[in-house]
Fold this sequence. Notes:
This protein is an alpha+beta fold. It has helices spanning 39-50, 64-67, 74-83, 100-112, 133-136, 146-160, 219-229, 278-298, 385-396, 401-416, 454-458, 471-483, and strands at residues 8-11, 28-33, 53-54, 57-58, 61-62, 85-92, 123-125, 141-142, 194-197, 200-205, 209-214, 237-240, 243-246, 267-270, 302-304, 309-311, 320-325, 330-341, 346-361, 364-376, 421-427, 430-435, 440-443.
Amino acid sequence: MTKGLDLILCIRFNITNHDHDVPQDKEYDIFLCHNSGDKPWVEKLAESVENETYNDRNLKVFFDDWDVIPGENIVLKLDYAMQRSRFVGVVLSPNSINEEWPKMEWTMAVYNDPSGKKGFVIPLWLGNCEIPPSLKIRNVLYCRDNLEYKKSYNKLVAILKNQKLPRGTMKPSSLNILSTDALFPIEYADEVEEQLASNLLPISHIPRHIWNGPVSSTHKDVFYHLTRSVKGIFPTFMLRNDLLYSFCDLHDKSCPFRELLIADSIEKNEITPWLNNLDKKNGLIEMLNRALRNHCRNLDLYFDEKHKRFYFRPYGGGNREIEWNTGERKSTRAVVKQYKKGKEGKIFWAHQSIQTNFLIINNEIFLQLVPGWTFTFDGEHSISPREIGSLSSKWTHNEYNSSVFYHIRFWCYVLSKGQDKISIKLADGLQLDVDITPAVSDISVGIDGDQLSIQKVFEVAEDDTKADFNMDEIENEEEEETEE
Length: 484
């Protein structure tokens, strides 16, 4: 491998298919899609793979320099080879990411397996370029240095040979002072790349400047002024030390805050230094959270001021459902539903809710989503804390990580209005854009061969999430608790 070269070799695989024989119509074990700038590295990989034996034969790679005859129709040959390859390896690097030929090849591969369920397309990451969204859902093999390359190569060969992925080895305990009866086998974490998903959505765009000018108004004065002068979503603002801060240009006569200024001593501030100043950082978060609340209210979400969460209220006095796109199909989710509880048929409402706010981590701005449930007696006001605790624990005890991730994905759909980003109005013509793909964190330890694709978690079917409530089951549990 070329020293210092940053690439990504993306190869999508299905580890549940290891015991299957090679289909008779497959001529190649892997098709290597790449750019000419990466050809020396790819050729070495191809040579290594073809030196591996499987079922009394050598593995076979489709590599254009070896397999496309001069004068042959290249497009037809590539299509032929891809259709007759068990896997397609897509080499993504700074050389190839925006080039037409590699893009055409991996697009053809992804078209045949858009969700990754077939395990056709394999990801190997050497870094320094963005992974296209259609390839992010694929598990990644890392090759940023010789150690990572060796581990990833062994995994790749195992996949091509229909073998189980290599796992970590048992290491002996050094606790010799304990009796053998008290010892349990200890298995250390493997040095592998792992990804952990979060409930944080990164900011993709924010205006560069914040303006401020002198005022004598209170928050109540400003809101009263906005109700008289603004139709639709209010622009966000902050008051500090008799100064009003806003994202809109206070010099602009159309700015709704201009009438509140008591002098023309207006300042224009770069937003970047605010991230390094604690007081200004808190002020920025205040403005963004105010804009977020305005955005949510515009989506007809009710804000519970006491518990700082948003939820839908009943529609026309009845249950409320939302149709949304899960990624693979459209699905309907009940976001408000009425239930009767106990022998007396006491009515309560269950609402899917969200606690959401902006925060700053390492000078980067994120939108945090914490999905949950809210229970009301009339579709708006909360039931007693004791009843909430009982219902919440029984309602959510079967919800696992996949369900929580799926709730986050649902709320991304709601907040983005079904678009590819969440756009929050800060002022006329100015908005904040939030990426709807949660931030992930890379760690260097885990269980080799047992990594989980974050995107695959998001692909869980709607039916696999807790979309309803079995009142008979809950009431039986409560009766048993009372008897005890």
